[in-house]
Amino acid sequence: MSRRRAREVALQTLFQLDMNPVEKGAEVAEARQAAIDVAVAAMDDDEKLGQKDMAFLVELVNGTEDNRDEIDSIISENSKEWKLQRMAGVDRNITRLAVYELKFGEEKLTPNIVINEAVELAKKFGTDESSRFVNGILGAIARA
């Protein structure tokens, strides 16, 4: 459950960074860390992440942000009817996070695991349609 919780906090961090963009430069690392710190501070004491899960959280955030242009290109190629910027912010960032895990992540997971985790995030944080939307795009990416 703690890796799932790390993904939830990563999503919250990515959403915050998406809504409050920072120009490239020295401030990027500081902004990322500040966003992680805010999301972690909002957690209940009984949900605090261990050292291994914190490292996973940092990898997810930094990896997704470092590869964002390529991730966005992959998403755009596989979501013909939806432009990236028109997607709901939560759905966009869940999809980005999952594409990072599918294509760039340090730990190679099967597509089914990544997609299932993303769908669960969409059910928890998105709208009623989010889980189907995220599942459809990620399924297309996994088949590509």
Walk me through the structure.
This protein is mainly α. The protein is 72% helix and 0% strand. Helix 1 crosses helix 5 and helix 4 crosses helix 5. It is globular, with a radius of gyration of 14 Å. The mean pLDDT is 92.
List keywords for this structure.
144 residues; mainly alpha; globular
How do the helices and strands line up, and which of them pair or pack?
Layout: H1 2-19, H2 27-41, H3 51-66, H4 68-78, H5 89-103, H6 111-125, H7 130-143
Helix pairs in contact: 1-2, 1-3, 1-5, 3-5, 4-5, 5-6, 5-7, 6-7
The main pleated sheet reads as: none
| Residues in helix, % | over 70%
Q: What structural class results from the helix and strand content?
A: mainly alpha
Q: Please, what is the average pLDDT?
A: 92
Spatial separation of the terminal alpha carbons: 30 Å
H and E string: HHHHHHH
Rg, alpha carbons: 14 Å
Low-confidence stretches: none
By DSSP (H or I, 4+ residues per run), the number of helices equals 7
Shape: globular
* Proportion in β-strands: under 5%
Give the number of DSSP strands.
Answer: 0
